[in-house]
Write a structure and sequence with these properties.
The complex is a heterodimer of chains A (481) and B (454). Chain A has 481 residues and is α+β, with helices and mostly antiparallel strands. Chain A folds into 2 domains: 235 residues, 2-Layer Sandwich (PmbA/TldD fold), CATH 3.30.2290.10; 234 residues, no CATH class. In chain A, helix 2 packs parallel to helix 3 and helix 4 packs parallel to helix 6. Chain A is globular. The termini of chain B are far apart. The radius of gyration of chain B is 24 Å and the shape is globular. In chain B, 54% of the residues are buried. Chain B folds into 2 domains: 227 residues, 2-Layer Sandwich (PmbA/TldD fold), CATH 3.30.2290.10; 215 residues, no CATH class. In chain B, a hairpin with a 2-residue loop joins strand 2 and strand 3. The chains are: A alpha+beta (481), B alpha+beta (454). Chains A and B meet through strand 2, strand 3, helix 3, helix 4 and strand 4 of A and helix 1, strand 2, strand 3, helix 3 and strand 14 of B. Strand 2 of chain A pairs parallel with strand 3 of chain B, so a sheet runs across the interface.
Amino acid sequence: MDLIESAKTALWSPAELNQRAVEELLGRLMSRAVDVGELFFQSLRSESWVLDDGLVKEGSFSTDRGVGVRAVTGERTGFAYADDIALPALEQATEAARSIARAGQDKRVAVGSTSRVAAPARYPAIDPISTVDEAAKIALLERVDRHARALDPRVIEVNVRLGASYETILVVASDGTLAADARPLVRLDVTVLVEQDGRRERGHAGGGGRCGLDWLLEGDRAIGYADEAVRGALVNLEADAAPAGPMTVVLGPGWPGVLLHEAVGHGLEGDFNRKGSSAYSGRIGEQVASPLCSVVDDGTLDGLRGSLSIDDEGCATERTVLIENGILKGYMQDKLNARLMGTRSTGNGRRQSYGHLPMPRMTNTFMLAGEHAPEEIIASVPRGLYAANFGGGSVDITSGRFVFSATEAYLIENGKVTRPVKGATLIGNGPEVMRRVSMVGNDLALDQGVGICGKDGQSVPVGVGQPTLKIDEVIVGGTEA
Amino acid sequence: MTEVTDVSRGILTSVAESEAKLKSLVASILEEAVRAGADAAEVSASEDCGLGVTVRMGELETVEFNRDQGFGITVYLGTRKGSASTSDSSPDAVRDAVRAALNIARFTQEDPCHGLAAAELMPEVLPDLDLYHPWDVSVADAERLALACEDVARDDARVVNSDGASVSTQQSCRAYGNTHGFIGSYLSTRHATSCAVIAGEQDRMQRDHWYTVARRADALEAPEAVGRKAAERTVARLEPGKIATGRYPVLFDAPIASGLIGHLISALSGAALYRRASFLTDSLERAVLPDCYSLVEYPLRTGGHGSAAFDADGVATREQAFVDGGRVARYVLGTYSARRLGLETTGNAGGVHNLDLEGPHRPRQKLLAQMGTGLLVTELMGQGINLVTGDYSRGAAGFWVENGEMAYPVQELTIASNLARMYLGIVGSGDDLDRRGNLLTGSILIDEMTIAAG
């Protein structure tokens, strides 16, 4: 059965809704001076298991379903939702949403009539919660725990969390859109605490993607996260105070790409640029980064955490070139901002749930590989910081200021990585820092699949990535002035 | 003026009527859990509804109605535990959720610390905390108020753009019950006005905001005052100056000083302590603040932002000090973490309720004079706080202070130290209390931190 039919069965059948009833509701939504009306049906099932103190002591299961109703007229949006997919609740939400616009006559709306070319599926439509039974999930957590504890006697606590969810969406809009998606998402997180001579440090690693839980069971994937978490924690046991002030910084490959998410990505989301509130507003065609930098947002990569077959407005995701050889090429768009800016959606319209309005959001955002070997990059630095891993970051898109926090860092002295230093926040201005990128590695890597991006109170899963990068000057926020 | 139908009224009057319904839902879910084989169970249910209206550049931008309901259940089979939650409260959904929670409990492992809090810890009477004051504001009125707010902010010629102004009202009903027979519920409201504007051109743009929040609409700051403050804060950031990397005293402005107290509460929380994942592990009786300061919780304060008569385990809350005369008087504990530590719960499952920093608060001007030369921080960025070690390193912006006077704005800085040192290094606190949150404090002056600047 195709995705649309199975989504209709899952979301409409319990309420005895059908396409004609939904089209009638859309017609009522459009009865006023509304440019675009949209109904977003969603159901979500999720499950998590937590191991603490060597025992799987907690588990939880949750379900949520509902429908978001949106009426857009010009720059105005009316929005309401119901956490009950039933006709009375839908009618009430429709009345509320359309109150944004002036009165008019009912319109006839038909959806799904245009010949549809299905977007390619970027992941299988499987519910990961049921891909593996409970006993196997628990055995996985216990195996990771035993492995982490056996690695080093200094490991005093291990926390392992396994999460899986399955989301079904169905988007129906007055522009003819009738689109559905079924999205699996899994992740495993390992956090360890190590202690030596009264000093304690924490380490974390994890991974996941849009796939079944069996993916986490393959080979030594989950064990690898335990190795990584313990290694990171032990490194920090030896770390000295970090330096303070501007210095050359080399960022490792993969997750440190959170730099691009903050320094570039958010500032290139269509809403901020339509409103002129981004440091990158009105600068398409300008040199906004060093010519070594090419940055893309790509939602089409198979099975990645940030990937989507279609976005939450029913548009197929794309590979959007944001910066090419340092020149600003384009913004990430949803339908509303694309229409107001006279362009088209790039498949970046995302929402946390039916209870939130969609807006332009990133998918997987990363910098393309350059030509230098990572060793050459390190060797070129007389004195600097090598930041191998990060926690999170944030950005003020208007001034361009951004921060991100290193959780594993080392000094570089005379072209060699020497001793570890404590984590520290790095701060800079996006366009300025991007112009100071002076070497780009040939070792592009994407993160392992644990990223969460927050914007206006909405969280969505994302991916980041980059090769090893050298930035000639960034402010390092250590304590050693 | 836009023509808007007033559908808000029909949607917004429903929560008060749902309190009894929600309590009986909790009772029926508990019955179902017992019938299905649970030895004990606890249920929280909620219903919220609200309206938010945003204007931008003098025009209505969004009207959002929200209405959410849902419940979560935890069941126990002996000392094994399972949880489930759903947004659907139909009888079928209740049965499914109970079954899902029980299924999980069959697979989890025994933990003697699991289970309900002792029955005698539940409150016998629930005081009226004066938290529910619905605001019958129409969409058109909310739009008018938001426009008035943004208009004032945009009156300043240096304000060139806007991220908009919003007026919102939220009502909420919460109910909690467990198989001891306790069921408690309360209604609350929360209304807010906020505004964010942009000053300066192209690569010199600065943005800032202000907001007011209250349980009663008539306790909100006037929209015009919010707009004026948003504009003042934004233009004050224009033309930032430079400082040199070094060690300086740092004054945390009241709206962000509450974050410092929040980290202290996190470090004293049971979940971090029993895992030994806090820099304040084994800190009972230890001096963590100068001896003139105490941290006291007032859960039953009428109209407070954090007021609650019982915690997330149904345990009665009480007035208590976590830090008394600078020393740790007790940890912040729920039922489970207390059992793990061999202590008694403090009624703080789910967090603290109205926490005040008490001490010799002084006018802010005196704190600036005391600091002499240093940094007034008005904005913090990023999550560079390590509660295991206390290491603190965050992005900051604010004002450089010379001879006790604000000299010029500064930004793109980091401030770094260790929280344990910072708390003991508090050398002054302001009487400029920020009353918008659950943690009540004025500005806080720290003797020395490392500031990195470009």
